[in-house]
Amino acid sequence: MSKQPAKHFPVPTPETAPYWEACHNHQLLIQKCADCGKHQFYPRTVCSHCTGGTLEWAEASGRGEIVSYTIMHRAVSKAYAGGGVTVLALIRLEEDVQMMSNIIGCDPEQVCTGMSVEIIFEDWSDEISMPMFRPADQQ
After folding, report:
1. pTM above 0.85, yes or no
2. Residue of 80, 96, 104, 82 lying closest to 7 (CA atoms)
3. Which of 41, 54, 114, 124 has the fewest C-beta atoms under 10 angstroms from its C-beta?
4. 55: number of Cβ within 10 Å
């Protein structure tokens, strides 16, 4: 019997642990600089706008729009085989940061730039929940 390869799970670091803990609770947190007031994503130790070091975690709306995307018809590895077509998108959140994630819950051929999307979380394990996005008009 052959063993199915495991998916690659993120490994939280001291900088990213609050983000992954929030995702596990199906909540999206991003950093906000107390010095300049701007948001940033991905988590870092200093502000990417002003290099300030006073970063706080703020709840994000989880809504945004697709800036760019690609449709992958082949799995990136055997661990993801059988999952069908994957849509990987660059999403600009309402908080004016961009993050990359999968678009789920719709026909890949309906995905387009400018499409409004909202976050949904997929539980991959007891510890890790992955943020994904779906068209905003779905419930």
Report:
1. yes
2. 80
3. 114
4. 20
